[in-house]
Structures are given as C-alpha cells and as structure tokens.
Hints:
This protein is mainly α. It has three helices and no strands. It is rod-shaped.
Amino acid sequence: MMDPAPRSTAAPRIGVQPIAIAAVALALVLIGIGSxxxxxxxxxxxxxxxxxxxxxxxxxxAAQASEQLVEKTKGLEATQQESIxxxxxxxxxxxxxxxxxxxxxxxxxxxxxQVAGLTEAIEGLRQSFASAxxxxxxxxxxxxxxxxxxSARKRGKSNG
Length: 160
C-alpha cells in the first residue's frame, strides 16, 4: 500500500501555489483588458459605436418607411376622396336621368292618350262619312252633273 506521508507534503505546496496562480491570472486579465482598450483607441473601432451607428441607421430606415407609409396613406386618401366625388356625380346624374325618364314616360302617356283620342275621332269620322255615303248615293251624281255642266258652260263661254 501507499504511504500517507506524500499526500500531506503536497498539500502545503498547493496552498501556496493558488495565490500565485490567482496573481498570474489577474495580471493576464488586466493585460488583456488594457490591450483591448489600446486596440480600440488606436483603431477607432468600438462595438458600442458600431451598435450606435447601426441603431441610428435602423431608426433612419424606420423613419423613412414611416414617411413613405404616410405619403402612401395620403395618396390613398386622395384617391378615395376622388372616387367618392366621382361616385356622387354618377349618382346625381343617375337621379337626373331617372327624373327625365319619368317625365318622358308621363309625356309618352299623355301623347298615347291623345293619339287614342284622335284615333277614336278619326274612326268616328270614317263611320259617319261611310254612313253619309250610304244614305246619299243619288246626290253625288247630280253634283257630278252640275260640275260637268258648269265646266261645259265655262268652255262654251271661252270659245264663244
């Protein structure tokens, strides 16, 4: 078996070494932080400024997109208002056309009634004329004779 004595002698050495290791680690960390600070100072690159620039660019893009949306919205509003105005004009014209059609229909009805009245009057005159012709068939030839006689008399006077 092994002897327990070597374990006890190694323990005091480990106790002294952790302080030295911690001091070396601290020094390395401080050197790393210092070198990063020097590198950022001389190169001018810092993640914070890059982030700030990126943030400003995003804000500028967002503002630009917002302005474009506002412009498009205003354009849509104007187009919508024009469409509403045109629709109102068309509705007004439609109302006018409806009124004109109603007036024309009224005039057409009146004219149809007048034509029907005239047709009835003409039909009545035809019937009365037909009945007058049927009752006076002998009167016409005498009229024709008298006309013929008159024309003969005129001829005779002209010749003589």
